[in-house]
Every structure is written in structure tokens, then in C-alpha cells.
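Reopening this one. Same input as before:
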Amino acid sequence: MRVLDGPYWSRQRRVIIKAEVVRLPGWDPGCNLDFVVTNLQETPAMVYASYCQRGDVENRLKELHDDRALGRTSSTRFWAN
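Same output, byte for byte:
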């Protein structure tokens, strides 16, 4: 984790980096990098887990919309749908 302040940011942000080597049979090892820019104060592991859960929920909503022909939701507010 690093704390950075960029020229376009009004305040400092925390950058959490997760790096892993992916090894699959028959393939050269590859690098998988994930970056999360946040102002949350939890531990890096907690912040990363939270962002992964959020992404998983967004993927489930996308599946409902695209794969199951859910169509347009009735409201622009998340909790109303």
C-alpha cells in the first residue's frame, strides 16, 4: 500500500496493489495485477475484499440484465430495484 497525491486529486489517496503470479498447465507464468485507489482507512486486505465483493455484485446484476433478459430496471436508485 502507498499513499499518493496526484496533480488532479484534491487530497491524498491510498493505492492498494495486489500482485500474483498465475501458473496454468501448458502456459508461461503470467502476472495478475490489481490496483484499488481509495480513501478508506481499513487494512489493505479488508479494502481489497470489499472492492471484490462490490465487483461480484455488479457482475451478478450484469448477468441478470444481459443473460436473463431482465431489461431495464424501474428506478435509478439501487435499493429501489
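So the earlier flakiness isn't reproducible anymore. For the record, The longest strand covers residues 13-22.
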